[in-house]
Amino acid sequence: MQSKSFAKNLIKICSHVERVAISGHKNPDYDSICSCLAMQEILRQNKIAADIILEKPLEPTFAEIVMKNHFVYIPTKQYDAVISVDTPDKKMLPANALELKEKAKYSFALDHHKDHSCYMQKTQLFEGESSACEVIFRTFEPHFTLNKRLSTIFYMGIYADTGGFVYSNTHPTTFEILSKITKFDIKPDEIVQNYFTNIKPQALEMLRRALNSVKFYEDGQIVVSALRFNDFDETKISYGDSKMIVDYTQRIDGVKVAISIFEPEKGDYHVSLRTASPDVDVSLIAKKFNGGGHVRASGMKLVGEYDKALRALINQAKSVLGLKK
């Protein structure tokens, strides 16, 4: 569906129903959260109230966002229309949002992932765009008025999903949007400091542990770092505050696939995948484990025995690199 007709249709339908819900993906990142907030604000400007549905309370990393916004964790009502953002497949929707979607009369999706499965009735997909925030901006631009709050939300989502405007998904349209939103005295330096570069002292200890855990495979083409359950238990730092570690290992010369494994709960592994190589698609690794993401940055969850999970990850990384298992 063309963006103009998609936007008009969504606003028209949501204007004539009683309850509207918005959801991002499980274990949301900044783009997921910000695209939810942007969608909510755009609907509000069109006199439509909408709730943002989350599966569980946000990580402490997002403390300031939590203080300034309202989220619904346990829906006590049904919704007539459900909007998903930044979520390529229904298996990545939070369980409560998926249940609401199955019972809703209308459903919409806005996304930028290339492997989007079109699980909603209507889908607006700009494949390969910088972020879901950019998709929302481009789709609804005639239907909202930029202000400082909305500009800040868009900036945060786009900044996060482009790695600070350096990933290959940063396009001329991205900078066109930035030129519009930075007119509202949003102070990008303060946003980056407050939300992205300001880390807790405990995070340095986690970084030390992660770097000490680093192991190389296949002549340095694959690098693995791991933070096990005892690391989280001893430092009392959250999973969200440890995610930056993969950004270090992907920069190592010769590395084509960087794998970071986090075990915040016993036997429950969150895996982040990164690559700086233009000819490597780490999303192919994630898909094998029911995960997803982008060509350069993807992730998934694994459960069970650590050594077995690690072997499976390395074997799949070797397969993507065209190496013998």
How far the N terminus sits from the C terminus, by CA atoms, comes to: 43 Å
Which second-level CATH architecture of the largest domain applies?
Answer: Alpha-Beta Complex
User: CATH topology of the largest domain, anyone?
Assistant: inorganic pyrophosphatase (n-terminal core)
Major β-sheet profile? 6 strands, mixed
| Total beta strand runs | 11
Count helical runs.
Answer: 13
The Cα radius of gyration reads 20 Å
| Fraction in beta strands | 15-25%
Strand arrangement, major sheet: 6-7-8-9-11-10
Into how many domains do the coordinates divide?
Answer: 2
Question: Which structural class do the helices and strands define?
Answer: alpha/beta
Order of helices and strands: HEHEHEHEEHHHHHEEHHEEHEEH
Mean pLDDT: 92
User: What's the CATH superfamily of the largest domain, by name?
Assistant: inorganic pyrophosphatase (n-terminal core)
Describe the structure.
The protein has 325 residues and is an alpha/beta fold. It has helices spanning 3-15, 30-45, 63-68, 95-103, 132-140, 148-161, 172-181, 188-197, 201-212, 229-235, 245-249, 283-287, 306-320; strands spanning 20-23, 51-53, 81-85, 106-111, 122-125, 215-217, 222-227, 257-265, 268-274, 292-293, 297-303. The protein has two domains: 3-196, Alpha-Beta Complex (inorganic pyrophosphatase (n-terminal core)); 202-320, Diaminopimelate Epimerase, Chain A, domain 1 (Roll). The chain contains 13 helices and eleven strands. A six-stranded mixed sheet has the order 6-7-8-9-11-10, with helices on both faces. A five-stranded parallel sheet has the order 2-1-3-4-5, with helices on both faces. The mean pLDDT is 92.
